[in-house]
# Entry
Amino acid sequence: AAHIIAGCADQLKPHWIEALLEFFEQHPRLMRERTQDANGFTRIHGDMNPFNVLIPIEGHRPIYLIDRQPFDWSLKTWLGVSDFGFALVLDCVTETRRALEQPILRYYHEQLRAHGVEGYAWEQLWNDYRLVVAGCLYVITEWNRDELNVDFMVHWLPMLQRVMTAFDDLDCAGLWRKRSEGNDA
# Structure
């Protein structure tokens, strides 16, 4: 992440630089740990964004999700809230995300329960959402895998800013900070 930070530090809030470095140090471990509990896992789309949803001009149905990512290298099964996290954080303006994320996630949780999913508490779903919101940083990393992608900075820099704003709003770092404080006790 050093080349990303160096290339756009002036476009980031000062505390985001340390948060980015901390994320790359802590988040992979949390993802591995989260795989130990199957609750919340399902088949995912993997590239949920407005360009992959076809909505009819008239009426409400049918809605089509297209361009699913079933490649050998792609994640096919993961936390169900990951598609919401990617769509709400990477592609929505911050005010829209803030207004919609709680109602959408609560409705999703209600529907899971209504359709027989048991043992997946709201608190776990919320923490899973925070985990995948933080994980949206991997998308920005992919845009800049080998070097700073200046040609597409107009796309990925606003995404990075939205992710880091959500990271702050949702206290995503609290997912690992509370754990490390508990382990030190």
